[in-house]
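User: My collaborator sent over this chain with a note saying "see what the structure looks like." That's all I know about it. Can you take a look?
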Amino acid sequence: MSEQTIKINHLPAPTWHWLHMNDADVSVPDELLTYIAADEVPSGVEKTVLDAPTLGAVATGFGKHADVIFGGVGEVTSYRTTAEVAAPVRLDYDFSEGANSVNAIELIAPEHTEMLVIQHFHSEANGFGFAGVETKYDVAKNAKITLVQVQMLGDDMTFCNNVGGRCDDEGSFHLIQLVLGGKRTYVGSHTALSGVKSNLAVDMAYIVCDDHVLDMNYVADHTGKKTDCVINANGVLRNQAKKTFRGTIDFKRGCAGATGAEAEDVLLMDDGVINQTIPLILCTEEDVEGSHGATIGKLNEDLLFYMESRGMELKDIYEMMARARVDAVCNLIPDEPTRQLVVEYLGEEEEA
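Assistant: Without extra context I'll predict from the sequence alone. Here is the result:
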């Protein structure tokens, strides 16, 4: 199988090249099939199959080279809410067959509407191959989109998850992501906060184990006045896992009154893990407030002493705290069946 290597997840302001954190290299097969997800579309949501994207110019977290992956998608599925508040759109991606495939969708929330979309990416435990999904969105004035992505892929899969969109005045986009499987996972997200008082919230949790790799790039692009973003990532690294987190809050000139905050909490379970974290704030506007931070390491000695003094084994303490990081994000999912799906999956993983 022939393939090519491309660079994605570019850091908007490069750091030292020797750190190897400015972008990510991903190997992409030359031949990719168009994958059509099984979906449940409720009343109040209009589904349209497009020959070409309508949001093609929207920036994404992967950057311009994403076209190498998604440029050949044969059709794009658009979901547009037509009700003030619609029931969830459920998209099921079963990559168990192992074929190299890509999928692209668009989410449209017109003025004064609210939309919940749930994407479930999964395969058999020994699943293999390459899969890519690109999700673009447009949030109109006083509208909201909540996008939930739950990833439960096999131990030999490469997955590219690319997200990008824009928010108009007082528009809101909430991204909830759980990465619970996959050999090599690449996540990119770019949100253009161009509308006055538009806002972005990202809540992400991950468990990366064995020699698996997770590479992330989140960009909040503030151009509108009084915009706001909050980016939170919580994760667990085990064995020889490697993870890179890039989180950028970009305050552009003209976004007076904008605010932004980002934080990552990483629990290192083993000495062989590799963690790379870059929380970045860029600013060309004076009247803004931004903060960033990261908590990385093993559990606090005082906490361990307290819990061990109450009869808990060290291994059980770490497992409980690792699970708590995922549960905290899982509980934010506004859909009970999806929350239960995650609980059952994690239960099976523990038994295995």
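A starting point for your reply to your collaborator: The chain has four helices and 21 strands.
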